[in-house]
Amino acid sequence: MDHFHHLLNLNTQIRRIWGELDEKIAKYASEARYSCPSGCGTCCEYPDIEVSVLDCIPTAWDLRRLPPISKSTKTSGSSCPFYQGGSCGVYATRPTLCRLFSFSSRRNKSGEAELVLCGRLRETLKCDLPELAAGSAKDILLLAPMIDEWSSRVATLDFTLGQRRLPIAAAMEEASAYLEHAGAYLNTMPQNTRAYECEDKSRAQ
Ligand code: SF4
Ligand code: SF4
Predict the structure, then answer these.
(1) Structure pTM?
(2) Which residue has a Cα nearest atom 8 of ligand 2?
(3) Considering every ligand atom, which ligand is closest to the CA of 122?
(4) What residue owns the CA closest to ligand 1's atom 2?
(5) Strand ranges (DSSP E) for 15-131?
(6) Mean pLDDT within 61-74
(7) Cα–ligand 2 centroid distance for 107 (angstroms)
(8) Residue 38 C-alpha to ligand 1 middle, in angstroms?
(9) Ligand nearest to the CA of 205
(10) What is the pLDDT of residues 150-202, one digit of tens each?
């Protein structure tokens, strides 16, 4: 497969996996009955969230036609460069980890599923968590996407780009450079009209 078709395939495959993942998260969240508190974006208030270059391909794809100043990922240093006015500026193409955070599970040392929760939700749900982790609520917990499984589904689409993990601004710039390297034919690609839209960061509400 040539470079162009490999990029085209990656962009399509990542979005397809994210579509499946979003459905799974929505189903889990509706059963588990919790959501991010309105207006919270604490998990975006870190400039060095690590993601893979591969995870940034869809955003870089959408941003490629914007003037350099508009698609700059330079950050003031206090938050993710895409966190703007309390919302994610690249919500539709936010990386896998951003989708999974606090709506996913992992295996503990005993091999049992346990929730991966941020401090804010851990505090909010502290009364409900024991129920969610045991008894009848265990069935609900099993609906939560496994963080390793879904991260790996994306990462294995391209081993090199999937393994290359960097702070998000650097990962995004590398993904953009990767696409620009193929720039001779990028101009012939259809523009994704959903580029750089702002949507509420809050999930599963
Ligand atoms: S996962 Fe939700 S509740 Fe937790 S810090 Fe992020 S936005 Fe806030
Ligand atoms: S990409 Fe969006 S969701 Fe992810 S950390 Fe940045 S602002 Fe938050």
Answers:
(1) 0.84
(2) 44
(3) 1
(4) 36
(5) 50-52, 83-84, 87-88, 104-107, 113-116
(6) 64
(7) 25
(8) 9
(9) 1
(10) 999 999 999 999 999 999 999 999 998 888 876 634 554 544 433 333 344 44
